[in-house]
Amino acid sequence: MNTELFIARRIFSDKSVKKGISQPIVTIAVIGIALGLAVMILSVAIVTGFKSEISNKIIGFGSHIQIENYDSNISFETSPISKQQSFFSDINELKGVYKVQEFAIKAGIIKTKTDIQGVVLKGVGNNFDWSFFNKNMVSGESFIVNDSSKSNDIIISNYIAKLLNLNVGDKIIAYFIQQPARMRSFKISGIYETNLSEFDEKFALVDIRHIQKLNNWTDDEISGIEVIIEDFSQLDKMTQDVRDIVGFHFNPDGTKLRVKSIKEKYPQMFDWLSLIDMNVWVILVLLIAVAGFNMVSGLLILILERTNMIGILKAIGTKNWSIRKIFLYQSGLLISKGLFWGNIIGITICILQSKFQIFKLDPESYYIDAVPINLKLLHILALNSGTLIITVLMLIIPSYIISRLSPEKTLRFN
User: Fold this and answer.
1) Helix, strand, coil proportions of the chain in percent (round to 5)?
2) What is the mean pLDDT of the segment spanning 349-358?
């Protein structure tokens, strides 16, 4: 039987203790822990949710991994590669790969009667994953790419639609600066909005055969291949696996293929997202420190209030460490009570925000229209266990004051 824990539980459940001088201070400490944990849960859920939302939007435009021609060209006029690659089956067989699809891009200008706007047309094939754009479609729908006929539909962003005063069903003309200059007529089938201005301001989707025709490419020539994986956390490993497969392949003209992850393609975006992690760590450290110091003051008051009990225990031969363990167990029970209510508060707010999106954001500043929530059991368990362990460890040194108390003085203490 754990005697120290038994005594701590008796003290914790003793109603007469709740009328003592320590009660207000201990209550404040417990409330501080509860609010601290609630804020930590919210902070982690919001930051990871924000990073996940922005990352998914970037990936929606460029996939996780791209395979392109290895040249120094950084414009939207790309050098073609063949889509009939021998490594296709090897990549598809990689564990963690969700989909492999081809794409082609070309810069152009959309012109109406009164306005013009530069765009980047992304050509997609019949195996394109529309889930991202369907999720962010505000009007209309995605078009179907089939082998029998070329689709003249186009999907534009809400930004371009408002700028050029366009709606679903309208016909637009796109011009392409080349020799000779060319034009294409499209019908708007859908309008999407991601609030990610860097992409919304320029990207539109069309049938890949338009890009191939404009570039005088054959049906086998494309700008590149996109690889979509199942788990973003495995991006670096999967990129290296794909690079190992593709690294020894060359185009018929002798040029080499290049493999780039979405992090390498848009480093500034992901570097910015990485900086947000520092804010979370600062919040966690400060809140745990505050919770720890609150409990230190509570522990000292508990010791002061139980001085007579300490003297009796010492008089009957109880060791200092055993007495310290009683108060550490009691503090642990109080911390657990704070953690319980902190979980209730934090998780409830997260669920309400996730379901009803109570707290809104300015899309122009934050790229999303509501506070995102990414609530994971692993994060909650880590925050609870970390707070409990660190706070209890912070109490070990203050509990040393018990060893400085002599039985004679404590028994006469009033």
Assistant:
1) 55, 20, 25
2) 95
